[in-house]
Amino acid sequence: MFETHLFQGQRVLVTGGGTGLGLAMATRLAELGAEVHLCGRRLAVVQQACDRLQADLGARAFAHELDIRQPEAVNAVIDRIWSAHGPLTALINNAAGNFVSRTEDLSINGFHAISDIVFRGTFYVTQAVGRRWISEGLPGAVLSIVVTWVDTGSPFVVPSAMSKAGLDAMTKSLAVEWGPRRIRLNAIAPGVIPTQGASQRLRPRIEGNEDSADRRRLDNPMRRLGTDEDIGNMAAFILAPGNSWLNGQTITLDGGDALANGAYFTEYQAWDDADWAHARQMARAASRPATQDAAQEGAPA
Length: 301
Ligand code: HXC
Description:
Elements: E1 11-15, H1 20-31, E2 35-40, H2 43-57, E3 61-65, H3 71-84, E4 90-93, H4 108-136, E5 140-145, H5 149-152, H6 158-178, E6 183-190, H7 196-202, H8 213-219, H9 228-239, E7 250-253, H10 257-261, H11 273-293
Parallel strand pairs: 1-2, 1-4, 2-3, 4-5, 5-6, 6-7
Helix pairs in contact: 1-9, 3-4, 4-6, 7-11
The structure holds hexanoyl-coenzyme A.
Residues 96-99, 101, 107, 109-110, 113-114, 147, 160, 197-198, 201, 280, 283-284, 287, 290-291, 295-301 line the site of hexanoyl-coenzyme A (HXC).
């Protein structure tokens, strides 16, 4: 699909790059010759991912411990990359946090847990990298992972939907503001690409709940769910060095799902209190390692 050495000489930072979609995109870019930098809250997870990329692909892959909610830590990591390796050529804003909840049940801390990662943290990283590109007169490319619900909205994930819509607005706004600096911003709005992190938090299996992977597959016009290859190839296309006139776009990658089926999670309207308690328990269990030594995997469902 792409020339083998398309990303030779490129240096790409992937936030939440140790697992899920972040790792899928990092893998594809590394296959195509990019030097990749993966950051996440659990150093062991990003380090293991880098080790595998080195062993399997001979890739130049570097791990950085980072909670993107901390602007000073963001700056320190970007500084370290710049001084130890050289300027980044691209940034993938992939790190995210999410869980399903009735909005009336959300605590203020719960709202912040999601919006501080997705909305604020993504801005911190984008600004930190963009500032360096601008001060050094370098071109750059930013790819942010949003979701189809930037168009459809989505019940039961309101902090995520609001935050992702903010990233869509950031993409369009900075595409115009930073375009003259040769910095372009685009986004992918993926549909359902199953990853462990998202499935546990967004699609807990509940007896009587028909929202299974099978049903989602059959409802999709292409009769399948998304794959790591789908998002890896789209990321490579958007960030390809020769693709310098693509700017300010959010590209939906969902097999036509949103056109056919609209917003996600509408079926959760039927859930009762016990279902919601179970969903919360499942999401909390998925986050337990994250709350102990911190995980940020960014994994759209
Ligand atoms: C209700 C919850 C909750 C849940 C946490 N909270 N989980 N409330 N239901 N399931 C509340 C807590 O009670 C607390 O509020 C507050 O949120 C903070 O909780 P912490 O556990 O301290 O948060 P933290 O350790 O910062 O964890 C952040 C997280 C966690 C977002 C909650 O899930 C996480 O780290 N996720 C990272 C990975 C991830 O989510 N991947 C999936 C991304 S999916 P109180 O009031 O009690 O103090 C994605 C989807 C997009 O992005 C696209 C899909 C198609």
